[in-house]
Design goal:
4 helices; about 25% strand; seven-stranded antiparallel sheet; alpha+beta
Length: about 140
């Protein structure tokens, strides 16, 4: 199986996992007299930053995943409603691909593509399985 079908299968699996997991509310509450935290970016907003109109693969309340194909390469952008949802996804994330990880979002692709996207999206590169002590993160 090539990488793209694996990524697509994983995106669908992530949607199922999120739909079956119990997530926390994850909303933002502004303290009295303080401005609330900025809303997390959507799949569409992240994709627009790199010149893509995503083809939605998963569009659920807790998780959304879109597929993009740009001159930089092919990738999946996933956003989460809550940190608990993101954590659950990361716990099930495939070990064979690096991830670009930001606040309540991830991008899944090859290292070459993620290096190009990181310049415009920011985030941290997770290069190996994050569950091991040998995980390498590039900020």
């Amino acid at each position: 199986m090539t990488t793209l079908p694996r990524l697509a299968a994983f995106a669908l699996l992530a949607g199922l996992v999120a739909g079956c997991s119990s997530g926390s509310g994850g909303g933002y509450v502004a303290a009295a007299g303080q401005q609330g935290a900025a809303a997390p970016l959507t799949v569409e907003q992240l994709a627009a930053k790199v010149g893509c109109k995503p083809k939605m693969q998963v569009d659920a309340a807790e998780i959304r995943t879109g597929f993009c194909k740009t001159p930089d390469g092919e990738f999946f952008v996933t956003t989460f409603k809550s940190q608990a949802g993101k954590d659950a996804w990361m716990d099930a994330a495939p070990e064979y691909n690096p991830h670009l990880v930001g606040k309540l979002w991830t991008v899944l692709s090859s290292r070459k593509v993620l290096d190009l996207l990181k310049e415009r999206l920011g985030g941290d590169l997770h290069l190996t399985d994050h569950r091991t002590k040998k995980m390498q993160t590039i900020g």
